[in-house]
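Friendly challenge for the regulars: who can give me the structure tokens for this chain first? No prize, just bragging rights.
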Amino acid sequence: MKVFLFHCWGGDGRSCWSGWLADELRAKGIEVIAPDFPERANPHIEDWLTEVRNKVKTFDPKDEWILIGHSLGCPTILRLLETFTEKEKVKGIILVAGFAKDLMIPELQNFVYKPFDWEKIKSKAKKVFVINSDNDPFIELSEGERLAKMLGCEMTLEPKAGHINEGSGFKKYDRLLQIINSIN
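First reply, four minutes later:
Bragging rights claimed.
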């Protein structure tokens, strides 16, 4: 198994719980890639996807990749899956505080400006997990529910967890380890 972590807008590869999770997984011998994506304040999806492909040329199913995104990392994962070749597939995706619609934030619109290819996205991930909070100041719970519906999975509610980030008290996030361990 290998894990690729996708950080949020303005974040980096160790933001929120990402650094903690990477350390936990590496201690178990799991390869983790957690880059600092370019232009974090004014991100562009093409640049972020290029950064992913600079790290991993092909997502071979035998490598059993798990992609984990927080906030803006989530539409990045969805866009990445749309680019997959016929032979590429991941073992699972975990979308935390995710969205796939225009949040009316100009810097983020280029990630969500066109419709997503939900059927292709679903065909490229064996397991899908969506986790959202009921008091996220940026992403309404209904968007997490819609995202889960479009991906054909259940949404996990993280009650009163804000944006599930460091500002909401999430410097570590044990639920992610539990989900990773549950993915067969």
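The chain has one domain: 2-182. The longest strand covers residues 125-133. Your move, everyone else.
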